[in-house]
Amino acid sequence: MAAESSMMCTITSMDGDSFEVEARVAKMSSLVTNMLPDEGEDDASEPQEIPLPNVKTLILTKVIEFCKHYQLEEKMNEIDKPLKSTVMSEVVQEWYANFIQVDQETLFELILAANYLDIRPLLDLTCATVGSMIKGKTAEEIRQTFNIVGDFTPEEEAQVRKENPWCEES
Predict the structure, then answer these.
(1) Confidence of residue 40 (pLDDT cuts 50, 70, 90)
(2) Cα R_g (the chain), whole angstroms
(3) How far apart are CA 162 and CA 156, in angstroms?
(4) Distance (Å, rounded) from C-alpha 29 to C-alpha 164?
């Protein structure tokens, strides 16, 4: 275990930028874990380079920041489902709530990266953040929040509401 904590690997973004990261931090990703050699293998002590062609540099730096904090500083509390609040600082520790205060584009790219890299705590945090943005809002408010164009005419929408009154219940 001591050897693993000092073992380093290089992770390269789709933009070609490389980051040297402790293996135990990188191994938060199941994808990276599967790409690294096992401890007993001959090349296990050699520096490893992991290409991540689906992750931009900006997003990868955020992912690494999250993983370092999670592994080296403070693990994130389990997120209760359903969410108890729309305020993320009431759902997770303050550092994580501040970390996830990003614009929508970055948030959705973090979701994609967390899913691709298979980092469950980051995926939980990002999805809970989207959930907090939706919680307690009407369909119209959700459309405005996420810039979604409704595909129903007003008549079609009225018909759907009439056929599904349970959707309007809180």
Answers:
(1) low
(2) 20
(3) 10
(4) 41
How many CA atoms lie within 13 Å of 71's alpha carbon, on the beta-carbon side? 17
Q: Return the pLDDT at 118.
A: 98
Q: What is the DSSP letter of 4?
A: H
Largest CA distance in the chain: 68
CB-based contact 19:11 (threshold 8 Å): yes
The reported pLDDT for the residue numbered 4 is: 47
Report whether pLDDT(42) > 60: no
The predicted model scores a pTM of: 0.83
Owner of token pair 């759902």: 91
Identity of the amino acid at 65: E
Distance CA 139, CA 150 (A): 9
Rounded to whole angstroms, the Cα distance separating 97 from 151 reads 34
| Cβ proximity of 51 and 93 under 8 Å | no
